[in-house]
Write a structure and sequence with these properties.
Blueprint (H helix, E strand, L loop, with lengths): L2 E3 L22 E7 L4 E6 L4 E5 H6 L4 H4 L17 E7 L3 E6 L7 E3 H9 L1 H14 L9
Antiparallel strand pairs: 1-2, 2-3, 3-4, 5-6, 6-7
Length: 143
């Protein structure tokens, strides 16, 4: 059974704009975590729907731990195939904090960031796999 973040939490287009949001920025109207399949389902108010794996969200965390503090400081995340999300916490009017089963909880996933990575999922996933390969790592088989 999925954990559901209450849809009533999400905000109207007239709310205060944070984190680069504009009145036209797509916002989530529903977020559901499917823990058994380790997928986060997001529906945006512009009719975009996506399913993002917990592994994908963890390796693309917007945290300084993953992104670093500037260009070239990114840290390749390895061994995250079995990661899950244990909690989804609302942050202000603009983001959620995802808490992962490895204890990582410092990334704030703004609405615009979630929409950006959802829109570019395939390219970002291939980029991640390429970086793993270039670093001599392979993903373990997960069933």
């Amino acid at each position: 059974m999925p954990i559901i973040l209450l849809s009533s939490y999400f905000y109207k287009k007239t709310d205060i704009f944070m984190s680069g949001l504009t009145p036209n920025s797509p916002r989530p109207i529903d977020i559901k975590l499917h823990q058994a399949s380790r997928l986060l389902e997001i529906k945006f108010d512009n009719n975009t729907e996506c399913m993002l794996s917990c592994e994908f969200l963890r390796v693309y965390s917007p945290s300084a731990e993953v992104k670093g503090h500037g260009p070239g400081q990114e840290v390749l995340q390895i061994g995250k195939e079995d990661i899950n999300i244990t909690a989804i916490e609302p942050v202000g009017n603009y983001a959620v904090r995802l808490v992962f089963s490895d204890g990582h909880n410092t990334g704030l996933y703004s609405w615009d960031y979630l929409y950006e990575i959802a829109s570019n999922y395939e390219a970002l996933w291939l980029e991640y796999l390429g970086k793993l390969s270039a670093a001599g790592h392979t993903r373990k088989n997960t069933a």
